[in-house]
Amino acid sequence: MDHKTFLKSLPAEVSGALTRRSDAAGLRHLVAHLGLIALAAVWIASGGPLWWAVVPVQGVMIVFLFTLEHEATHKTPFASEALNEWVGRFCGLLLVLPFEWFRYFHLAHHRFTNIPGKDPELADYDRKLDAWGPFLWHVTGVPYWGSLAKQLWVNARGRADASYLPERVKPRLKQEARIMLGVYLLLALSLLVTPVVFWIWVLPVLIGQPFLRLYLMAEHGRCPKVANMFDNTRTTYTNAVVRFLAWNMPYHTEHHVFPAVPFYKLPELHGVMKAHLLHEQAGYAEFTKETIKGF
């Protein structure tokens, strides 16, 4: 069964229940996630016991807001359209990932998942995993930060151009990028007064990015380059902490098959479609081990 046949087989009442969004469910998760980030920030800034050990933890918690920004592009974390928009923009600011641009970039990924030459998110993905050098360079996050900085600058100059970008959105991309650059300039100037931004945000996200790179590899890595979402995407079984930080996105096949389902309904969707899953993995460490065996 392919993903389209599966979706057609779902009774209307089941689809309706699975796609029903809730502000309360989304806000509970958001408050918990941001609350932990705020607590870690205070701990680091105040020089609490072992504050330096909290820095990488802070980094992981911040960079995994990527999964929330990603969900906000689908408008599923919250019932409120405005809440989805502003939470997505806030995450984008923290991650140097312009939300307005990322929405179209990511939707192209869903439209052409793992199709060579068409999926912008997975372009040259296999090349990054075929040897130790490219693999480690990719995991450092340096190419990722360089790509984002370039995209932000291109957007700010009004020169964003890609097949997935409608002409009507380009003025918004320019405005968004210029606002972001203005905020970053103010934050950079704050370093002349206090280094707190460096310790609670800049250094943590640099340290945390490799963890996100490794996590993201499991979503489509080593999956066939075909159109069937059951065959081009992987579900990874992991612990409650990772599922919390990743907003249930380890249920990634489930998300790609039915992206209108909010993150808090993905475990329920998993129960409905488990028999149809083609690629499952017992943990991210196991996926990484199997990947590097081929080098």
The proportion of residues in beta strands is under 5%
Oligomer: single chain
Quantity of strands, as a count: 2
Structural class: mainly alpha
* Mean pLDDT across all amino acids: 95
How would you spell out the order of helices and strands? HHHHHHHHHHHHHEHHHEH
Q: State the shape.
A: globular
Structure at a glance:
The protein is mainly α and 295 residues long. It is built from 17 helices and 2 strands.
Can you put this structure into words, describing what you see?
The protein has helices at 3-9, 12-18, 23-45, 51-63, 65-73, 81-95, 99-111, 125-128, 132-140, 142-156, 170-190, 196-220, 229-232, 240-245, 252-257, 266-273, 284-292; strands at residues 235-237, 280-282. The radius of gyration is 19 Å and the shape is globular. The chain is built from 17 helices and 2 strands. The protein is 66% helix and 2% strand. It has a two-stranded parallel ribbon with strand order 1-2. By secondary structure, it is an all-alpha fold.
